[in-house]
Design brief:
With 348 residues, this protein is of the alpha+beta class. Helices cover 35% and strands 19% of the residues.
């Protein structure tokens, strides 16, 4: 035996290489191994029949050539253009603009956000109980449950507006929500705030954060009910706030009630009437009212924001801030809606 160790190592690896090559040669499939495989790219019956016939013919003819059936691929769907255009209101008549003698006003198209008419729309003004729309949105973010029972506290009592609930009475949270939006009840609104577990300060901070999140740069709050003249916004931003609020199903349902009846836990029946006088007047000339919110203080004057829709489902918001009397805000809002639908057409 050869005694050189390097020779022995080289011989060992040479033997492994030879046997490994032989193993791979005999174990790998040959060309004929693939001839029995049916390529089924398109599972249609027509393809299966054609490919099988071609394969059988090749076998009968004794051909050694591989038969590659024609590959059929389903065509990709057409790239159809998707319409993303927004319908824009365009003026079609040379009518005079509405006359707004007091306060500020705005008409805003709901879908596009386009301003159809405005007067001092970006001027900050006190908004009174329109504040309660922001309070409703924050409450819904912290709702303890509609069936939760709440006992009215002395700290919930506040001057201003009608008093529907008294200290010690127990009601469901749902009733407080409806009282706040239908009857614009201040006590019910403060009770609603308390039901969330937030302090009054924390709740107002959440309202201001909500305004910031909605990009309402000229809107701010110091209370949740609207009594302070420092609860301020603009006609334009009130329209934007109302758009978000009225799109909420719970709010939209509440504000359409002409009256709301409920019974306290102590079995006392209560009834509250909506402060939105226009609910009794619409529909008018194929225009319907989808809801509204009123507000009044000495500093704010008479305020209103309403959402309207015509027979073609075009929706608009009308806002009046600082109206001179109770009926002025309603009359002018009605005039604005009729003027918009008479003089504008919604087009792509």
């Amino acid at each position: 035996m050869h005694k050189n160790p390097f020779f022995l190592i080289a011989a060992f690896f040479t033997i492994i290489f030879v046997f490994g090559s032989l193993f791979l040669f005999y174990s790998l499939p040959t060309q004929s191994a693939y001839q029995g495989i049916e390529l089924n790219i398109n599972p249609s019956s027509e393809y299966k029949q054609d490919s099988k016939l071609e394969f059988l013919k090749s076998k009968q003819a004794g051909s050694r050539e591989e038969i590659m059936p024609e590959l059929k691929f389903n065509s990709l769907p057409e790239n159809k253009e998707i319409k993303t255009s927004i319908v824009i209101p365009r003026k079609i008549a040379e009518a005079e603009d509405p006359h707004i003698s007091h306060g500020s006003a705005v008409l805003m198209d709901s879908q596009s956000g386009k301003i159809i008419f405005s007067k001092d729309a970006n001027k900050q003004k006190a908004i009174a109980s329109i504040t309660k729309l922001a309070a409703a949105l924050v409450f819904l973010d912290n709702n303890p449950g509609w069936e939760t029972e709440y006992e009215i506290k002395r700290s919930d009592r506040v001057n201003g507006g009608k008093i529907y609930l008294f200290s010690g009475e127990k009601v469901k949270v749902k009733d407080l929500f409806y009282l706040s939006l239908v009857g614009s009840a201040n006590t019910a609104t403060l009770a609603l705030v308390s039901s969330t577990g937030l302090s009054k300060k924390e709740f107002v901070e959440a309202m201001n954060k909500k305004a910031k999140d909605l990009n309402l740069k000229n809107t701010s709050f110091v209370d949740s009910v609207g009594l302070s003249y420092l609860n301020r916004s603009t006609a334009y931003e009130v329209a934007k706030l109302a758009k978000v609020a009225f799109e909420n199903e719970d709010i939209a349902k509440a504000i359409l009630n002409e009256e709301y009846c409920f019974t306290t836990i102590g079995n006392r029946k209560k009834i509250v009437y909506n402060t939105d006088f226009l609910l009794k007047s619409f529909p008018i000339n194929d225009i319907i009212l989808l809801g509204g919110k009123t507000g009044y203080t000495g500093a704010a004057g008479y305020c209103f924001v309403g959402k309207f829709k015509n027979k073609n489902d075009q929706e608009i918001f009308a806002v009046i801030l600082g109206g001179e009397d109770y009926n002025y805000r309603f009359q002018k809002s009605k005039e604005l809606a009729e003027w918009a639908y008479d003089n504008f057409s919604w087009e792509y």
